[in-house]
Design a protein that fits this description.
By secondary structure, the protein is mostly helical. It has helices at 3-16, 20-51, 62-75, 86-133. It has 4 helices and no strands. The two termini are 32 Å apart. The mean pLDDT is 88.
């Protein structure tokens, strides 16, 4: 089986929740994505609100605020200048802490998923071995 077809099978199994670990991973990923989108939208609105009137800020439009918050969450930096207001700086700090936490959480989710999948595989092999031995 090629790597691509193996990947597609895994994604299909995840989409259809073919096992308990797939169901758990799908639920956790969905929750994480929804929460992250909500935080991105809320941070965009807050950044626009606190930064747009400041003359030395790079955030003056909704797009500027969205671009800044999204790049900040995905790379912990942005090509735009850092916020100039105290509230804007606190928002960026909170976004950075959230982004680091989410990346760590995602790593844990996938680690738990692969651990449980290998646990299932070992249990199946043990059952087959007992059945074959009888």
């Amino acid at each position: 089986m090629s790597i691509f077809s193996h990947l597609m099978t895994g994604l299909r199994d995840l989409a259809y929740a073919r096992s308990v670990p797939h169901t758990d991973l799908r639920r956790r990923l969905t929750t994480t994505v929804v929460l992250t989108v909500f935080i991105d939208i809320a941070a965009t609105a807050l950044m626009l609100l606190v930064e747009r009137e400041h003359p030395s800020s790079d955030i003056h439009t909704l797009w500027d605020a969205f671009y800044f918050t999204t790049t900040q969450m995905t790379t912990l930096s942005s090509p735009m200048a850092n916020p100039v207001t105290g509230v804007g700086q606190l928002i960026v700090l909170a976004l950075d802490v959230y982004a680091i936490t989410i990346v760590s959480t995602l790593a844990g989710m996938f680690g738990a998923f692969f651990y449980h999948r290998s646990d299932e595989r070992r249990a199946r092999e043990k059952t087959r071995g007992i059945t074959a031995g009888n």
